[in-house]
Write the structure tokens for this entry.
Amino acid sequence: MTAQTDTPGSVTTVYQVTGMSCGHCEGAVSGEISELAGVTSVKAVASTGEVTVVSAAALDETAVRAAVAEAGFELVGQA
């Protein structure tokens, strides 16, 4: 799901990530995705596996997948 937010030009995308089970997992995924160029906000929720990313423009899913893998988890796709 990709949707415009209130900030002009920003894009909100929700990804589905498997394997997160705690706050540490959320922090690891958020930290890696936060390092991607253009990302302004990341919120990971272990209980649902959803990671909401706000960025200046649409992100390359391959880059997001690599960041999630670097944190030790798997990106299933967009929620």
